[in-house]
């Protein structure tokens, strides 16, 4: 590839949740502005979920130190923090990784659906902020299509395993008689929906809260459960034995003080499952007697135990990805030829139009039908002469033959 595609990432694979959250980018618009100005990348897309913060970039040349420096400035971290946690791959490996993401193979819950939606949102935001361009837009559109196709044909996502169902299973394994316990969900987003679905399926009653009571009510209409006022919950955690916390709040909602107060009147104990990243439960609550705190790290362990059926499909999907990545790489290389090809077609077409107008003037032709025939003739002649060399240039580009591109550039007097 004339252009390099890079992927720089910090993920749950080599960073636990308390480390991962330090790399989290809080303000996406600002991040895109800074990356455009300082990273040295011509295009970039950020994928940020509870399990990963990833940067895809395109450049002719890149300097990883500049990328780290910009990322560090967005998070308040030192550049050194990246040495232990950052993975960096380029070109074919970066494309391969993106296909694993869209197919759900790199997810904590292999095959889960959420990541596909999150990637779609990421490329939409990058497009809207003009952080991505022709290369990354094409790459992401193709990767999303391929990932969807692989999911549909392999059935990897079937079977109802999700972060939500794993969290409920974790609660079941740690608490006796869950049916008789008071369960509360904090948050009405995607993850809470998954938890609620799983609770419903297993026949557990639960309450739900979110900052706006209306949202909780609407959630309950669709998912079951009982809506509770947010303020009531914050000052009355003692009513509950199990908390599932899944919000994007940028601070601790479940604080040490609130749980200490709650535990004065709660003699049955409390299990708190913080599914958020960044975490919304202060880890200090784990030191309070009778409180058991779990987070996404424990969910990851639970997932490993429950994935046998899905993991059997992984090898087949990996084989499909290996085939698809070759085709994807060829399409990306082909993009290198597009500016030249477009330029040649444009120049030749303006010459054609100029000469056509001259000829029509000399002929003093007024008959629309005849004018149309002559015009179509000029188009057909141009097309039949130019198409073959242009397709050959594209093919050479697909095969990574940059010499042909360079020579063609000289022949057609193309300046980048
Ligand atoms: N999506 C996934 O696949 C996935 C998987 C595992 C973990 N997670 C993590 O789980 C958390 C929730 O993710 P999600 O996908 O469910 O998000 P989401 O769909 O965007 O929902 C976010 C929820 O957070 C609540 N919220 C936001 N700011 C708040 C604040 N200041 N105080 C109280 N509530 C607040 C919102 O409640 P309102 O109704 O009050 O606005 C909403 O219910 C995130 O930390 C995410 O990283 C996500």
Strand content: 5-15%
The CATH class name of the largest domain reads Alpha Beta
Main β sheet profile: 6 strands, parallel
Radius of gyration: 28 Å
> What is the CATH-assigned architecture of the largest domain?
2-Layer Sandwich
Count of alpha/pi helices: 17
Notable features of this structure?
416 residues, alpha/beta, Beta Polymerase, domain 2, 3 domains, six-stranded parallel β-sheet, four-stranded antiparallel β-sheet, 12% strand, binds NADP nicotinamide-adenine-dinucleotide phosphate
Report what the structure shows:
With 416 residues, the protein is α/β, with parallel strands linked by helices. It has three domains: 4-159 and 312-332, Beta Polymerase, domain 2 (2-Layer Sandwich), CATH 3.30.460; 163-305, Rossmann fold (3-Layer(aba) Sandwich); 338-411, no CATH class. 56% of the residues lie in helices and 12% in strands. The protein contains 17 helices and ten strands. The chain has helices spanning 17-20, 28-38, 64-75, 81-85, 92-103, 114-128, 134-154, 163-174, 190-201, 213-223, 230-234, 256-264, 296-305, 308-335, 338-363, 368-398, 402-411, and strands at residues 4-11, 43-49, 52-59, 87-90, 183-186, 207-209, 226-227, 242-245, 270-274, 291-295. It has a six-stranded parallel beta sheet. Strand 8 (242-245), helix 12 (256-264) and strand 9 form a beta-alpha-beta unit. The longest helix has 31 residues, at 368-398. It is elongated and about 100 Å long. The model has no long low-confidence stretch (mean pLDDT 94). The structure holds NADP nicotinamide-adenine-dinucleotide phosphate. The site of NADP nicotinamide-adenine-dinucleotide phosphate has 22 residues, from helix 9.
């Amino acid at each position: 590839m004339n252009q390099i595609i890079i992927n720089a990432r910090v993920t749950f694979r080599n960073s636990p949740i308390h480390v991962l959250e330090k790399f989290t980018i809080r303000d996406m618009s600002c991040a895109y502005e800074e990356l455009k100005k300082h990273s040295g990348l011509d295009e970039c897309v950020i994928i940020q979920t509870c399990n990963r913060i990833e940067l895809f970039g395109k450049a002719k040349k890149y300097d990883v130190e500049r990328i780290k420096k910009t990322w560090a400035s967005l998070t308040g971290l030192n550049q050194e923090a990246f040495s232990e946690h950052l993975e960096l791959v380029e070109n074919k490996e970066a494309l391969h990784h993106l296909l694993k993401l869209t197919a759900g193979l790199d997810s904590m819950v292999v095959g889960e659906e959420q990541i596909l939606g999150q990637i779609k949102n990421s490329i939409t935001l990058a497009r809207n902020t003009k952080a991505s361009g022709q290369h990354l837009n094409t790459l992401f559109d193709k990767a999303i299509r391929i990932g969807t196709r692989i999911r549909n044909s392999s059935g990897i996502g079937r079977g109802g395993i999700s972060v939500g169902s794993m969290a409920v299973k974790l609660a079941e394994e740690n608490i006796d008689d869950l049916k008789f316990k008071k369960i509360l969900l904090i948050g009405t987003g995607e993850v809470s929906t998954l938890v609620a679905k799983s609770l419903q399926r297993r026949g557990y009653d639960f309450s739900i809260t979110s900052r706006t009571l209306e949202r909780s009510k609407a959630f309950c209409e669709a998912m079951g459960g009982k809506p509770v006022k947010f303020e009531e919950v914050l000052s009355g955690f003692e009513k509950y034995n199990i908390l599932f916390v899944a919000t994007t709040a940028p601070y601790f909602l479940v604080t040490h003080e609130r749980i200490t107060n709650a535990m004065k009147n709660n003699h049955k104990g409390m299990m708190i499952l913080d599914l958020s990243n960044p975490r919304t439960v202060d880890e200090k609550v784990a030191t309070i007697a009778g409180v058991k705190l779990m987070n996404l790290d424990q969910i990851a362990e639970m997932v490993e135990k429950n994935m046998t059926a899905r993991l059997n499909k992984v090898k087949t999907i990996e084989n499909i990805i290996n085939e698809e990545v070759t085709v994807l790489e060829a399409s990306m290389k082909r993009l290198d030829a597009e500016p030249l090809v477009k330029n040649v077609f444009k120049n030749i077409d303006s010459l054609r139009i100029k000469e056509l107008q001259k000829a029509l003037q000399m002929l003093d032709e007024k008959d629309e039908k005849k004018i149309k025939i002559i015009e179509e003739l000029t188009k057909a002649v141009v097309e039949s002469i130019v198409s073959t060399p242009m397709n050959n240039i594209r093919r050479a580009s697909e095969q990574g033959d940059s010499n042909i591109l360079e020579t063609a550039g000289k022949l057609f007097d193309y300046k980048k």
